[in-house]
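Sample A.
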Amino acid sequence: MNSTREQSRDHPAGREVVVALTGCATEDARTVFDVLRRSFDSDRLESDAPQEGSGPRPTVWMATVDVSEAKAAAEPAQLSGPVTVDVQGGYWAVERLRSQLTGAFTVRVVGTAAGDQEEEVRLRLESH
């Protein structure tokens, strides 16, 4: 019998990870999304550059990434400072995304919230 974690890989929704960035420089958000776009299919086009929002509330940049097939290995990328990334999806998909990001950044898990079939993980990314 397959575990819930193994089954999620076979379900289309189990291959998608929602990625949210906030509290970082616009250029750093662009760098993270560029790495993800080169690695996997994403709903963010290359021309869809993060823009700073207006108003008193923090800006949140989001993307949905399909991790079922890696397009290329992630190459090291430079950030101006640490970036906090919240990712949500099936266990297998979140782990695959985290693993891919380790090629571009130093990745540290700083928090998790587990559900029955999904998890939310907060990652801290830094340049190698």
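Sample B, a different protein:
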Amino acid sequence: MDRRASVQFNGPNALVLRVISVSARATYDGWAWITGYALDPETGKATVRREIFVLRSGLQIMRFKPQSPRKAAR
């Protein structure tokens, strides 16, 4: 998520979210409440569950590939 989904995710506040549900509750046209897990950018592991209000057209589907672990120096 970045600024295209909502101003709250601008710059360093951008996040990758694994979506688990989209709420059916009524909102403004084009907006939605979604629930998911914020992912750690290095490991891809879920760090915290979040419920966020976003502009649907600003969402991007990604195939998340965590950074490969660094090999230990010998």
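Observation for Sample B: The beta strands are 17-22, 31-39, 46-55.
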